[in-house]
Model the fold of this input.
Amino acid sequence: MIEILTPDDVSKIKDCYVAEYIKNLLTNLLTQTSDCSLETVGGIFYVENEKDFDNYKKFGLSSKITESRFEWIDLIGNDFLDGCIVLDNDKAINIVGKADYFRKGVLNSMANTIETNSTVKTTAVFSKNRKDRYLLKAEWDSSKKSLAIIMTYPSSADELIFDQTTMLVRNGAVKNDFGSVSIINLFSSIDNPLPKTDKTNTSFVMRECDNADVIIVAYGRSTSFEEEKKAFLNALTEHYNDKLHTIIDSKGLMFSHPLSPFAHQWNIQKLDLKR
Done:
């Protein structure tokens, strides 16, 4: 087992594919904390065989790891899985390893199980050159309230492949009893380091906000694009003040991004900026 807390730890992993995945995951998680290490907010663990799961204390856990402990387990490619376990409001760990290790270590119990099924309709809208994503939507129960969540800029996640942010958003929506979630952003550009707002993206944002029962503003607390965020938030307040909400993290701060290690459990509160 290899524990990854800092960028230097990634060099201990020999498999190039999973090392690159963990490097990107670590970078994303570190942006959500002011520390240069994940130690205060959890960590990433790379398991090298199925027996590593037996050493639950090394993961910071007090009991044996079972499938039910995981918030989610996602296939990341090359037969590797990434599973997230939330420890408390401030800490979570990611466990990465071969799918075979997961199957033998934590996914091999079939006794006393029930099978459940659901249908999730996912929709992604990109520009024709796929350099912009305007919408990523998932719907699983049309009888429940709909959610729109607004972040800063999109990833390349689509209707089939979800990244960690979109996975956490969908999980959060389900846990808070929504029947659908529309992921929209201030900017639509996927890779442009200097994105600009555009009419097409604004049209999709307005449409999804019109149709949503609840709107969550989840920019995070990065200081980038402050003027654009302020102007956009003013426009949202003008049209949708009654629907606007924010995620309050465990430190009591607003506008939490779903990736924040302090906002794994959503505390959704009304956002009234007209007061």
Summary: The chain has a mean pLDDT of 90. Residues 2-105 form one domain.
